Amino acid sequence: MYLHGTSKINEKGHLEIGGADAVEITATYGTPVIVYDEELIRAQCRAYKQAFQKAGVSYKVSYASKAFLCIKLAHLIQEEGLALDVVSGGELYTALQAGFPAERIHFHGNNKTKSEICMALEANIGCFVVDNFWELELLHELAEGRKQSVNILLRITPGVEASTHEYITTGQDDSKFGFSVKNGQALQAVQMVIAKPLYRLIGIHSHIGSQIFETSGFIKSIEILACFFKQVHKETGHTMDVLNLGGGFSIRYTDKDAPLPVQQYIEVIIRETRKRFVDYKYKLPAIWVEPGRSIVGEAGTTLYAIGAIKEIPGVRKYVSVDGGMSDNIRPALYKARHEAMLANRAYGRQKELVSIAGKCCESGDMLIWNVLLPKVQHGDLLAVSCTGAYTYAMANNYNRMQRPAVVFAYNGKVQEVIRRETYEDLIRNDIG
Ligand SMILES: *Cc1c(COP(=O)(O)O)cnc(C)c1O
Q: Is-contact 205 152, C-beta < 8 A?
């Protein structure tokens, strides 16, 4: 298992994260538990900011909270000076409860409900990223009732879709998100926004995908977006201040992944933006990015206790852990791959190839197929790395499993940030 951030193996042969011994963490908080390396989260936040500051451009880095959000993380993101993207009333509520500054909250989503919009207006958040014509009308109607002006970014589909290793240009209309540039709906939306007295059109947003390893998709998007900025100016005389390129920056889950350093993604984005906007003799807009996975993904490690071990001679050895698709649905959902190690016996000998099974009642609940570990024994502690993004955020109560505890480790200190669910929690909303 690759050791990210502050993770290392200590003199006892135990995995250590944020200066805290994984065996001791589980003795206190039980298993499964997700341990975040707080220093690594902060380092990622700073890497984005520094890359922009070095280039001397206006920018905003907004953490896409859907990757993982809790009160403590909202505090951390606030301390690091980032903005926060939310896509639901629940994420907005969490941010507000954490005391996150409303003007730094951006509201995304393709179906914001009336009550969610009202909640966001009431809080007076920084901006709405408007996704479709329905929302454009609804938001204005609700803002009118409150006589409140609203900052708007329009989400557009640039026709660039990022896949894992390359971008492919797709049919403009085949996305549930945003206004298409090619069919003219994006320009139509711009005209509608400009015509509404309470709207202030500050910019354009696009998000082309996730776990993107190359810069070509961003380069293509910038070209198309710059073209669109120019078209808007020509048709309406309106200039916009913000070019929001979304998130999608990749991380290293396994040795097959070769993400670029944050610095490099940002350098390319800035270079291309300068190039395209100088070409058009247009004022350089502020560049906004929205990393989610790359802020928290590598910082998270899940610790499980190993229970049943089943060997089918000549076929495979199944090693079962006390969690699974209820705390990490990614392998079942999109065949995501993770690395693992024995957190209590990092240097154990007699390596063997095993497969890690979750305990949920689905054959598909396999966390890792074929991983080389020291000869596994009952009671060993398994660490699965890179579980910081889209794991707890997608955790569920299938089989009435309790969602795990989450802790932050920093400089040898461990702080519980989400309590493990109890059996009482599971029946809290049941009406008998
Ligand atoms: C999901 C999402 C992000 C973050 O994506 P990552 O791959 O986690 O960086 C950013 N912006 C928007 C609009 C998104 O939907």
A: no
